Amino acid sequence: MGSQVQIEIDEEEFFIDLLFYNTILYCYCVVEIKATKFKPAHAGQLNFYLSAVDSKIKGPKDNPSIGILLCKSRNKIVAEYSLRNVEKPIGVSEYTLTKAIPENFKSTLPSIEEIEEELSHIEESKS
């Protein structure tokens, strides 16, 4: 559906990192990407986005939305405690930037260092 998808709640704007629609499950999938270690507040933010999508975008024939939170790293127990009483389906995973880029793509894609630099700037601007 898009990246940085704007959703307005009570005259405030929020931006979902990635929003997909799963045509097999008939539901929206909200993906949040964090350039830092998992924090419990990230689960709250994703839960908020899921509620907003279900309220504002989801149709009557759609299934409830699911959430995926991708973080630079995570503590499995902290993530488990953060999600224990959340009723919406949310998964937390670490992402890995790999140096194994096919030769024919190397000139068209940013380097791992450039991606990490950009992610750190994004996270700094959100603080």
Walkthrough of the structure:
By secondary structure, the protein is α/β, with parallel strands linked by helices. Helices cover 35% and strands 34% of the residues. The chain has four helices and five strands, in the order βββαβαβαα. It has helices spanning 40-56, 76-83, 103-106, 112-126, and strands at residues 2-9, 12-22, 27-37, 66-73, 90-94. It has a five-stranded mixed β-sheet with strand order 1-2-3-4-5. α1 crosses α2. The longest helix is centred in the middle third of the chain and has 17 residues, at 40-56. The two termini are 27 Å apart.
Task: Record keyword descriptors for this entry.
globular; 127 residues; five-stranded mixed sheet; alpha/beta; 5 strands
In short:
A hairpin with a 2-residue loop joins strand 1 and strand 2.
- What's the alpha carbon Rg, rounded to whole Å? 16 Å
Adjacency order of strands in the biggest sheet: 1-2-3-4-5
Q: What value does the average pLDDT take?
A: 81
Give the % helix: 25-40%
The ordered H/E elements are EEEHEHEHH
**Molecular shape:** globular
Q: How would a crystallographer describe the biggest sheet?
A: 5 strands, mixed
How many strand elements?
5
Helix vs. strand class: alpha/beta
What gap, in angstroms, lies between the N and C termini? Answer: 27 Å
Low-confidence stretches: none
Query: What fraction of residues sit in β-strands?
Result: 25-35%
Contiguous helical run count: 4
Topology:
Elements: E1 2-9, E2 12-22, E3 27-37, H1 40-56, E4 66-73, H2 76-83, E5 90-94, H3 103-106, H4 112-126
Parallel strand pairs: 3-4, 4-5
Antiparallel strand pairs: 1-2, 2-3
Helix pairs in contact: 1-2
